[in-house]
């Protein structure tokens, strides 16, 4: 990913959230998301990326971004430095199921292994059954850890998954 990819990644992230999390995250939160606000956030995040954080994009034959993944060291405490985390993986909603996500995830695993990670963790919204099936087919298993995030006053739970590399 380059700085020039930020607007496309932001568009992908916002439409991805709005498609994948409808009925899970309050609609008021999803409706309030804008590509413009996400571009500003992504630019700040991209400019301040810590060493060891990797952003990957998938592009189509025309060079348009159709998928994005971000990985790095696990953000939680008490784990080995060999533990990585998949922070995000989004595919253009119309292309979900086309193999782009699987290809991106394989690239994530390759980069993670090259970065010295032997274990990958990720968080998935508990009610996002489609994403949970996707990660389970890729060899991830829920490890019992849960957390919640607040979206417009509604607590939404997430489960953590893990996979050895």
In short:
By secondary structure, the protein is α+β, with helices and mostly antiparallel strands. It has helices at residues 6-20, 27-32, 35-47, 100-114, 129-137; strands at 54-59, 65-73, 83-91, 119-125, 141-151, 154-164. The protein is globular and about 35 Å long.
What does this structure look like?
This protein is α+β, with helices and mostly antiparallel strands and 165 residues long. It has a single domain (3-164), classed as Aminopeptidase, CATH 3.40.630.30. Helix content is 35%, strand content 32%. The protein has helices at 6-20, 27-32, 35-47, 100-114, 129-137; strands spanning 54-59, 65-73, 83-91, 119-125, 141-151, 154-164. The chain has a six-stranded mixed β-sheet with strand order 1-2-3-4-6-5. β3 (83-91), α4 (100-114) and β4 (119-125) form a beta-alpha-beta unit. The longest helix has 15 residues, at 6-20.
